[in-house]
Amino acid sequence: MKPFQQVLLAPVALGLLSPLAVSAGEISPSQRAEISTYMEQQNIDSFKAWEAQNQVTSINQFSDVKPTDWAFQALSNLIERYGCVAGYPNGTYKGGQAMTRYEAAALLNACLDRITEVTDELKRLMEEFEKELAVLRGRVDGLEAKVGELEATQFSTTTKLQGDAVFVIGSNSFGGNQGLPNPAVGVPAGAANAFPANNRRNWGATVFNYDLRLNFLTSFTGKDLLYTRLRSGNFNNSPFGGQPYNLMALDRAFSPAGGADVVNIDRLYYRFPIGRDFTALIGAKARNTEFLAITPWFYRSEILDVFTLHGAPGTYNKATGATFGLMWKQNVKKGKPFFAISTAYVAPNADNGNPNQGGLLGERSRGTWTTQAGVAGKNWRFAFAWSYVQCGQNFRRGTSFAQPAVGCTSITNNFLGSENFGTNASYSNNFATTFAWQPTKSGWIPSINLGWGYNAMTQPELNPQTALIGRGATAVRVPTFNTVPTFNQSANRGASQSWSVGLQWNDVFMKGNQAGMAVGQPVFATSLRNGETPQDGNFAWEWWYKFQVTDNISVTPALFYLSRPNGQFTTIGQSSSVLGGLIQTQFKF
């Protein structure tokens, strides 16, 4: 053993071995004289022979040593690892006894001899496995070189990159007996021409589209998140991008601003904790449904977008833009039920400085203010949400009649007596209630997910039509009081509803595979302002099975059916429907 190792071990061993001295009260005078002679003559071998007679192999052999003694563990380690601890002939240890310097040196030497034996054994093993150790040493050197290279070339020590790419191959069959455009008054041209034969001509081809996301996750403290997403796709001219009916849009179907294949900044926000129970969010581009206190459903199809909105597209409308949010979650033990509340304001037009077209907290910001409160347990959750939605922000997914936004451009107050008709912009109050439950273990019983939504629209006195009276500088506009909207006018909508039910099975046939189905009525008008009965009913279904090929690759065949996606814009007494089929492949990296 090297000298410096002996120097380091000496004070430790002296402290631990000092109780090993033989007391004059425990041995005879002749034995004491014999031991002293060994020490004085430095006869280590003779002392070792005496010591061997009193050597112990277990700390339990000492009758006076207890587990509560402060040096119990240290003493136990010396006995079991090195076997260099001896006791008195009567089976005691006498941990409080003193010892001479000769005795300490001899006992320390005994322990060092045992350590040297262990070292020699290690040397023998190292020589025996020299080749294997050389291989391992080379691998470690290679790993160190690679780590050094990665550290030298990485673009950030605080940012992680996550990505996924989705391929969609599919087509649609357009059915129904509507053979000509809808001739009714007030039907927009696009909706009037969305009948089966025309749809087959314009959207009946089999398509191959993609949606790519690159997510940059940056944390400065380990608890915060600066989230940046780059996204591209080519669904701009695809039926799965929501054409000719918005209900055909898939959840993963990105149509970049600027055209297909253009890379857009899709998300940019900063999320951080405030104390133990609160979380805040601020960002130039965030989404209200990604800052909810409680995720309403367990259902995860990622096929039709309408079934990612929890039965209430008007409330959970995926509004995206400049965002401010605050969330509170009750701090409880993991697995215990908790209460939570969140609120977020989103302004899609916050970058526009014209107060008639955008800005923050203005009447024409197209803003959405979403507040959610709920309670959730390990395998169930219940939530209630309210959204205040301004004009220009649509109801996300519904019939062609019910889905569009309440218009901002139709609002006018530049006529004589306009103060009697109101000057505030239009808006809607939207409500949602959801409940979800999933079994503790996978099996034949699926998760059950329920959602219902209600939307109430408010407009200033139906924006009365006006007529110009007079000529030149003295001309004024006066209301004609022809304010009753026609049956199919957007301004005729007073209220709408929606609902959905989703069922999902996990570990179907093989672990990791999933299957599901959902049915519901996307947003449809239930009340018209002119007093007539709406004809806007519709249904949507989807069925899918997800093959989890690897941890990073999945393949999902799916079918969906839309019974009356044009809603009230379908010619009265006739029908128009869609049956779609697709295969969606996802790669995560």
TrEMBL record:
Keyword Coiled coil found: yes
PANTHER family: OUTER MEMBRANE PROTEIN ALPHA, OUTER MEMBRANE PROTEIN ALPHA-RELATED
Alphabetical keyword list: Coiled coil, Signal
The keyword Amino-acid biosynthesis belongs to this UniProt entry's keyword annotation: no
Family according to the record: Belongs to the OprB family.
The name this protein goes by in its record: Iron uptake porin
Cross-referenced Pfam families: OprB, SLH
Residues annotated as domain SLH: 58-122
Signal peptide annotation: 1-24
InterPro entries named in the record: Carb-sel_porin_OprB, Cell_Envelope_Struct_Comp, Por_som-like, SLH_dom
Matching PROSITE patterns: SLH
